[in-house]
């Protein structure tokens, strides 16, 4: 038993040494796997060390800012409705879907899906506990959801007043998000979480703001074009439908938000954090 513990301790020490020895690349050289992982772990630990009120407010800000994607989605649908086929309009939303994400990520507000893999890395590296991760996830989700509720209430009132979209548009978008069965929504959310975790990794690998904007646009446009379920944008879409249309029930909302949050977390954790961390561990062993 003691030999096993000593072996695990030595393995962890080797991993920490490899991360410590990862040097910053020159400006014209791509970052190595170890450099990106070290940056992600350090940034993740900094988030754990923040004041809980600061985390909640930053998360709430992200929930509000992601609403600008929803504002443009509704406005585009209303503008193109009757001029193009509905499936063409939903595909065209990929061009405006990334706007809120660019605001959130470059503004460094805390978004659950973008932070999911980042926050699990210190746990995998044995620097933070699972209970601290769950507590932090809870704060981030709470802030994101409250921010989404606030912006949804505002836009449901504001859009028709400004005549940039109507309540029928809100209903159509909410139904488009929730029309699938639970298994489809779950798998879709896992894929979306995978992409968002990859987005966090690629943003860490990039060296300038323009590259980050291109990466954010590229990944989130895939989400928008394919209709993969993102829990925080979807929260605004479905909640807005809930408060403005009898076609969306409270059960529709609860099922959607539970499945999408779980799927996004699972996708970000398994396909990005765990696999990339384990790949580095085996590299360190070799």
Automatic annotation (TrEMBL):
<dbReference type="GO" id="GO:0005886">
    <property type="term" value="C:plasma membrane"/>
</dbReference>
<dbReference type="GO" id="GO:0015499">
    <property type="term" value="F:formate transmembrane transporter activity"/>
</dbReference>
<dbReference type="Pfam" id="PF01226">
    <property type="entry name" value="Form_Nir_trans"/>
</dbReference>
<feature type="region of interest" description="Disordered">
    <location>
        <begin position="1"/>
        <end position="24"/>
    </location>
</feature>
<keyword id="KW-1133">Transmembrane helix</keyword>
<feature type="transmembrane region" description="Helical">
    <location>
        <begin position="179"/>
        <end position="201"/>
    </location>
</feature>
<feature type="compositionally biased region" description="Polar residues">
    <location>
        <begin position="12"/>
        <end position="24"/>
    </location>
</feature>
<dbReference type="InterPro" id="IPR023271">
    <property type="entry name" value="Aquaporin-like"/>
</dbReference>
<feature type="compositionally biased region" description="Basic and acidic residues">
    <location>
        <begin position="1"/>
        <end position="11"/>
    </location>
</feature>
<dbReference type="InterPro" id="IPR000292">
    <property type="entry name" value="For/NO2_transpt"/>
</dbReference>
<feature type="transmembrane region" description="Helical">
    <location>
        <begin position="133"/>
        <end position="159"/>
    </location>
</feature>
<feature type="transmembrane region" description="Helical">
    <location>
        <begin position="253"/>
        <end position="275"/>
    </location>
</feature>
<feature type="transmembrane region" description="Helical">
    <location>
        <begin position="213"/>
        <end position="233"/>
    </location>
</feature>
<keyword id="KW-0812">Transmembrane</keyword>
<protein>
    <submittedName>
        <fullName>Formate transporter</fullName>
    </submittedName>
</protein>
<feature type="transmembrane region" description="Helical">
    <location>
        <begin position="92"/>
        <end position="112"/>
    </location>
</feature>
<feature type="transmembrane region" description="Helical">
    <location>
        <begin position="55"/>
        <end position="80"/>
    </location>
</feature>
<keyword id="KW-0472">Membrane</keyword>
